[in-house]
């Protein structure tokens, strides 16, 4: 394995860390919403839009990290 190929695999692995971080972020977003909804059920409907925005932002970052990892591996 050449030095360039090794660097590509290491770089892709480091870029893929963002996918795991995004999964953690999605769990945090939904966990915080559930905790807030259980504390104040009347306000849960008003916060649902913010829930989906937070979910979309975290998921977008995960998809971008995955795309960067694939670009590092396969683009030349």
Structure description:
With 76 residues, this protein is mainly alpha-helical. It is built from two helices and no strands. The protein has helices spanning 3-39, 44-74. The protein starts with a helix and ends with a helix. It has one domain (3-74): F1FO ATP Synthase, CATH 1.20.20.10. It is rod-shaped, with a radius of gyration of 18 Å. Helix 1 (3-39) packs antiparallel against helix 2.
Order of helices and strands: HH
* N-to-C CA distance: 16 Å
User: Rg, please?
Assistant: 18 Å
Name the CATH homologous superfamily.
Answer: F1F0 ATP synthase subunit C
**Dominant shape:** rod-shaped
- Could you say how many structural domains there are in total? 1
Outline:
The protein is mostly helical and 76 residues long. It has one domain (3-74): F1FO ATP Synthase (Up-down Bundle), CATH 1.20.20.10.
Task: Reconstruct the topology from this structure.
Layout: H1 3-39, H2 44-74
Helix pairs in contact: 1-2
Features:
76 residues, mainly alpha, 2 helices, single chain, 89% helix
């Amino acid at each position: 394995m050449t030095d360039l190929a090794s660097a590509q695999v290491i770089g892709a692995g480091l870029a893929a860390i963002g996918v795991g971080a995004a999964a953690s972020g999605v769990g945090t977003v939904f966990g915080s919403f559930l905790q807030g909804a259980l504390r104040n059920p009347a306000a849960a409907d008003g916060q649902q839009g913010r829930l989906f925005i937070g979910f979309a932002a975290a998921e977008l970052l995960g998809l971008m990290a995955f795309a960067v990892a694939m670009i590092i591996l396969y683009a030349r």
